[in-house]
Design goal:
The chain is built from 2 helices and 12 strands. The protein has one domain: Pnp Oxidase, Chain A. It has a 7-stranded antiparallel beta sheet. It has a 3-stranded antiparallel beta sheet with strand order 1-11-12, with no helix packed on it. By secondary structure, the chain is mainly β.
Length: about 160
């Protein structure tokens, strides 16, 4: 037993990744504005946390360029992708350099100056309330200050390396 937990079997990380590939999730682009311009990443680990106050939970790998901008009280946007925005997801998932990502899709500045994707399922303007480091990631609790939603419901869903 290390640190009070049973030892992890050698094959568990690979089995865990295989299990999580079976978990279907909607795709979002989480973005902030840095000194050199907007920075963003694709995320499937975004979930509603509470309605009072309105808040979401986002898990962000600490190795991403975006992570350096994430501190309590920092603003960020969460853009829930529509089914026809697979190219945006692929670009922000690492298929395109950080400098080129915001050239894919139709981006505009929201009323708070945060990057906002046109025709997304929803756009959330948030401010970070709290962060918790865990393993390779930070768990970010973001208070929602603004929300807009599209008329239709057609989310982009990702599972097992493909879009559904």
């Amino acid at each position: 037993m290390a640190d009070g937990y049973p030892l992890i079997p050698e094959e568990l990380p690979q089995q865990f990744r295989a299990a999580m590939r079976r978990l279907a999730a909607s795709v979002a682009i989480v973005a902030a504005r840095g000194e050199a311009g907007p920075i963003g990443m694709a995320a499937t680990s975004v979930t509603s946390l509470t309605a009072d106050p309105p808040a979401v939970l986002v898990c962000v790998n600490r190795a991403t360029a975006l992570h350096g901008l994430l501190v309590p009280t920092a603003p960020l946007s969460v853009n829930l992708l529509s089914r026809d925005q697979q190219d945006v997801s692929a670009a922000f998932g690492g298929g395109v350099s950080q400098n080129e990502r915001f050239r894919i899709g139709e981006w505009r500045d929201g009323p708070d100056g945060l990057p906002e994707l046109a025709r997304a399922q929803a756009n959330l303007g948030c401010v970070i309330d709290a962060m918790l480091a865990y393993g390779t990631h930070s768990i970010v609790i973001a208070r929602v200050l603004r929300a807009t939603v599209s008329d239709g419901i057609a989310p982009l869903i990702y599972q097992d390396g493909t879009y559904l």
